[in-house]
Amino acid sequence: MPHLDPYFKEVDGLQGKFIDRLKSAVAIPSISSEDERRTDVVKMGEWLAEQIRAVGGTVELRQLGKQPGREHLDLPPVLLGRYGNDPNKKTILLYGHYDVQPAQKSDGWATDPFTLTMDDKGRMFGRGSTDDKGPVLGWINAIEAHQKAGVEVPVNLIMCFEGMEENGSEGLDNLIEEEAKKFFKDADVICISDNYWLGTEKPCLTYGVRGCNYYSIEVSGPGQDLHSGVYGGMTHEPMTDLIKIMGSFVDPDGKILIKGIDDLVAPLTDEEAALYPPIAFTMNDLHESLGSEVSIYDNKDDSLKHKMRYPSLSLHGIEGAFYTPGAKTVIPAKVIGKFSIRTVPNMEIDAVTQLVEKHVNEEFARLRSKNKMKFNVVHCGKWWVEDFNHPNYTAAAKAVERVYGVKPDMTREGGSIPVTLTFQAQLGKNVLLLPMGSSTDAAHSINEKLDKRNYIEGTKLLGAYLHYVAGELVHPSK
Amino acid sequence: MPHLDPYFKEVDGLQGKFIDRLKSAVAIPSISSEDERRTDVVKMGEWLAEQIRAVGGTVELRQLGKQPGREHLDLPPVLLGRYGNDPNKKTILLYGHYDVQPAQKSDGWATDPFTLTMDDKGRMFGRGSTDDKGPVLGWINAIEAHQKAGVEVPVNLIMCFEGMEENGSEGLDNLIEEEAKKFFKDADVICISDNYWLGTEKPCLTYGVRGCNYYSIEVSGPGQDLHSGVYGGMTHEPMTDLIKIMGSFVDPDGKILIKGIDDLVAPLTDEEAALYPPIAFTMNDLHESLGSEVSIYDNKDDSLKHKMRYPSLSLHGIEGAFYTPGAKTVIPAKVIGKFSIRTVPNMEIDAVTQLVEKHVNEEFARLRSKNKMKFNVVHCGKWWVEDFNHPNYTAAAKAVERVYGVKPDMTREGGSIPVTLTFQAQLGKNVLLLPMGSSTDAAHSINEKLDKRNYIEGTKLLGAYLHYVAGELVHPSK
């Protein structure tokens, strides 16, 4: 059993510095989906590179050129880092992202989203705190604590931290393909900390994620917005058409109404069904993280299956319509509906898109409207499933037990992390998801947070994992 | 026939000053539906009062107290003005409004919405240029040109200019009721310039307007916005419910699907049907003002009937959902759908609201969702129809023929002007709508404009009307 106590002690001792590090990261509004924030995304990448160099790592900020379809924008650089280069050590590839979802105080945040703010319960609120700046900094914290403790990092580390994860990871797949046999060639396994525990107390290891096909529908007609009193009744209104189409996708109970989608879903096997009952998760956990009791199913197992291994369809919003408070009597001239489908085995991206496009075209044709409709694929990321009997997982399970004193749940994640698939396909190495945050962290929402406990114990976990995986890769215990 | 040439000559001579006056008015962003613009609405009222005093009128800015339901806001004052007080003259009550619809350059305006900008075709672009600052200033221009020409204004004028027309005319009805037998008691007839010609060449007199019932539906469930990957499939999503309800109101061809609404509509009589064929309006006019050919009907008469004497339902937008460009994988926690119904004889406000609320409640119940739904009445204004054989209309028709050389179309308007009804009911006097702008002015839209011709000839028209109505009220010609 690795001698980790001196390392753990240093992590505790350095926690103030680690929290300041996260505060500095959250202060940079690196929103990858907003043009005017692109410079902040780049700034964040450069700041992160400095942090890695400061602990003795080497870093290249790899430029990816213009953003496809939005050539006025440069893609943010991918941070390619290395720590340690000992041919006698195994090498772990770490992935994370330094960009964040959009956030404005006016969305309803209790505190400024870009000022990390800790409350008396040790909850650290701020955009990116848990998704994914906290976990990324966790690796740097782990290296620093090893050095301070005089404990050698038992593996070589290769880092791949991107700045477009919240916006389709544009350009990353090409880079991974190019570097698979070069910069990434020494990687024995891959570890990604970019998801969440199922509940708030018990850690988990994640061996699968859903994919995401994100679409938009643009309906346009009038040359400009119109007065609904002057033109209402004589004009085909784009909103009427769009709302009809958007209303045809899914039932309130989550059932997807697009013909053929269900046929693509792999049937639930008895072996797989048996995985769910042991998972430590309650409807109370779910209701707490929802902030209400609007769950579709009344039991834990069905809820988890529909989060982990069945598809879902969400309507995100409409661009171009009236969206502020107050009453505007307008007929919007052009509206763009946004929606996405979470995909699971065996739904192929293009097969899903063909069914969705066919459905949208048929629904619009039924309306016999004179407006114009355009269906767009915004971005797609495939689902991923991994072998959880691999030493990579055995090591992580032991690290969890060492730090938290419990065996982790083995889970699949609802949110897509497309890069898992690319690493698996291009490097042919085992990929592990080792989450730091908990189910109440509200990633992508207002008041996103990371608990201090998850950040500090999580830093211990990431460090401990490096020791156990070094051992398991040489002498597997199963 | 009144001797008007000297007056007309002065209007032409003063046109530069009149355009500068409109420029100054447009520069004040008096948006009544946005809290943070309320001070600008008040500022606009004070500026307008100064303009009237400068031509010798007397003005009171009548305070109306707090805005009901939004008590942190004071209602903008109603401008009560007087010009002339000769017991031997007839008295005309003028109504208009000095507030405007929301506007931002980013909505797609070609020019700054609050900088009046004239192009080489004499189109003066700016929010409020045609709705309703241009027409209101037309009355002041007319008084000034009379004075400069040494022609006596043949009637007394009472002015009622409000600052909440675009936001439900809050507080105005009470004021009119209170002042009916006081400040407004001398009024012989009422004239309102706050609508538009049907086309671009031929003026019209308007004897009816549709009403407007504006509603919102709030659907909420989760305690905060959620990550669609983490929670999609296990949660009742407010957007799914709202879109289903909003999709149940109206067909793309404009047919309202709310049970019982059609039964409230007065049947079309033969006499009424005969009014439509003579109207100078073509499908080309409609398509030009639409900026496209997305008209529901292929002929002028049906198009006009559905604009003037049949109801319509428009979906305006959704508050609380994702509305910016880009891709956000969010499940919005609370969304508010906005829609309105344009009403016609004999649809009573409360009867319509009861049918709509019943429909909304039934649709939501059918969804069997665990989310909460709240139906809200935002504001309602009733339809209005007037006797167009009254001297008030005869006078206006003669003024149109004098200034433009054509007989006006007799029309009913699509957009609601609730105050017409209040004046009719409280004062028991004939109300005339005498529009200045044309059908291509794009009120409530981006690139709202008023043609220089309509502004200057329109100022002549308003002045000429005062002379003809003075005569007709004493010796009716029919």
TrEMBL record, chains A, B:
PROSITE patterns assigned to the protein according to its UniProt record, in alphabetical order: ARGE_DAPE_CPG2_2
Active site, per annotation: D99, E165 (proton acceptor)
Record GO terms (molecular function): metal ion binding; metallodipeptidase activity
Site for Important for catalytic activity, residues: H227
Assigned keywords, A-Z: Hydrolase, Manganese, Metal-binding, Metalloprotease, Protease
Coiled coil residues, start to end: none
Cofactor note (record): Binds 2 manganese ions per subunit.
Biological processes, Gene Ontology terms: proteolysis
Binding site residues for Mn(2+) 1: D131, E166, H444
Cofactor(s) in the UniProt record: Mn(2+)
UniProt cross-references to PANTHER family, sorted A to Z: BETA-ALA-HIS DIPEPTIDASE (PTHR43270), CARNOSINE DIPEPTIDASE 2, ISOFORM A (PTHR43270:SF4)
Family per similarity comment: Belongs to the peptidase M20A family.
Name by which UniProt lists this protein: CNDP dipeptidase
Organism of derivation: Lojkania enalia
